[in-house]
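name: query_chain
kind: protein
chains: 1
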Amino acid sequence: MVWTRATCILSFILFFAHIEAVSIKHHLKGNVHDAEFEEQKDISEINLDPPLAAGLDLFQGDILLRNSRNGLRDPNARWKFPIPYILADNLELNAKGAILYAFEMFRLRSCVDFKPYEGESSYIIFQQFEGCWSEVGDQHVGQNLSIGQRCDHKAIIQHEILHALGFYHEQSRTDRDDYVEIWWDEVIPGHQHNFNTYEDSFITDLNTPYDYESLMHYAPFSFNKNESVPTITTKIPEFNSIIGQRLDFSPIDLERLNRMYNCTTTHTLLDHCAFEKANICGMIQGTRDDADWDHEDSTRPGQVDHTLVGQCTGAGYFMFFNTSSGLAEEAALLESRILYPKRKQQCLQFFYKMTGSPSDRLAIWVRRDDGTGKVRKLVKMQTFQASCSQTWKIAHVTLREEKKFRYLFQGVKGDPQNSNGGIYLDDITLTETPCPTGVWTVHNFSQVLQDTVKGSTILSPRFYNSEGYGFGLTLYPHGRINSLSSGYLGLSFHLCSGENDAILEWPVENRQVIMTILDQEPDARNRMSSSMVFTTSKSHTASAINGSVIWDRPTIVGTYDKDCKCYRSIDWGWSTFISHTMLKRRSFLKNDDLIMFVDFEDITYLNQTEVTPRNTRLTPQGLVLQGQEQQDPEEGSAQASLETIPDSQGNGQPGRQKRSAESTGPMEDHNWPPYFRDPCDPNPCQNEGLCVNVKGMASCRCVSDHAFFYTGERCQAMQVHGSVLGLIIGGTAGVLFLTFTIISMRSKKLSQ
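structure:
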């Protein structure tokens, strides 16, 4: 048995030498002098770091327990949407933007929604405490969700919000041991309880299979005492590199979320079609055009769909307009069903391929309400021209529809006599979200990997955002030359000089960069794209430019690139953006194309977002502090309740008692959770000093009078103000001088 265990762990370590779990990097406060973020640790590692480890002992590593409400089992602990929220001003600016970005992921994939707080009794306040943690379920009071330093990553925020929505960790299921092995001897002493399983009466899987890909699963090295030895391995070895992924929701995560909250639709997904069914998603052929689009599959040589890339017999359909016959300028229209928007902006994304004449065209139209209730008013939005490349391409068209509408695809024949193909359409997605600012596709990426080495770079074209700033991406197919990790792709952001630089602000700060490598799964709800987020700051400097801010004007701090005829600044990003293994496992390299998005937006407006809760008390109690004795419920003004949570063996967890407290006022210090016992009761300060609770310790604010003031830890020493003391000394000296003068004058008179 010992030999089997040792062999398994050794095999796992060797396996991880080649295939590592996805890691991310991030910056800390203060100046950062390298153009690469420091390595981002997983949630359990962040929450074990000193000084956090000395003060927090969270349930399962990142759950703050207050009472026994379980959102999975107790309907009363499930939220009503939209969920009110507050973004506390102690959050870093990047964290605020990342939280709003995470909200959009929920809106796209589920019926979960959020709204700014307006006085509701139940709400979530996002704050920067130490570490990343949340409570489970709706506590029916204001409750905290901590996004501390190094926690402001999209997937970590999604993980903590899923806790708030009522979910526990995947490996807590009662059937966990059928799928993974826990190496108890490798767990940090005192943290074994984090790997307990629980009965169905406490945690339910909502009748879904065990999910190795779950965003709620522990990573292999969670709570490990030896950094090179895992604490958890999978019984199917290929999933050892998958558990603990921090890309995005897994499809089963979303299935559970939507079952739990009875979601039948999402908020921002308006339409999706992969043309796999004969009804072509309710789309209709035009009646006043010259021809029709054909619904075809991938059985013909050279005709391969985008959805399944021709890999499935009897599946893999697309729409095709033949441009090799008939007359020039003949057209075919394909119209969507009538759609009803909720927002004022939409993004139409689709894949197309043009294999006919170079003069063939694909035009995108919108048919709007004409004011009488009929959807008939046509407006052309954008036209795509055929190019030399005859591969599948991704396209985005921004729509701004506020009333019911249809979108249309118009194929136009350019030169039928010189055409041997036509126009293909597949994988249409319409969302009520902004389109990405920059879209970059690298074709034949497998060949790129073969032709490049560690440190090799590929530069994107220059993009412009709405403010007029030029920027681009730097791709490292094998990571940076100085990276300690191998088997990873690196991706970084840089500024480019442009035509608007003379009127723009420099250095440019408070702009959030969102870089995404697209998972080309046809259904946007099931995509697990890799996204990284950071916000430009004057603290981002580089020694290569003598410590200057890298977000200054590129003509000052950048180098000239003859290909784009512009200056490019030092790039800033991640050397381990995503592993090659993950790229190949999902649909990141469909048709061997790597597709990247980039956005660069001003989030200065998020600097001040906090509002004061009305007539409700924020009670984030329930935090168990290591080394702190539990208070007798009868002592003090707060009534505390203690309860032990049973595991699947019926045993209570030692040292894992959860607390709830009443009659506790709102927390004024947003930098640390409050303790239960008030250190200012009774008042330890002397001479009428005022006691203030600072991070659980009494701090005396001493009385100061016009003439005297008190000092000392307990205001025990009286002092005289310097000005008063000077006045006394000066007055005394003056009196002595005057007395001496009078005596001298009288002595002279007597002598005369």
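note: The longest helix spans residues 722-751.
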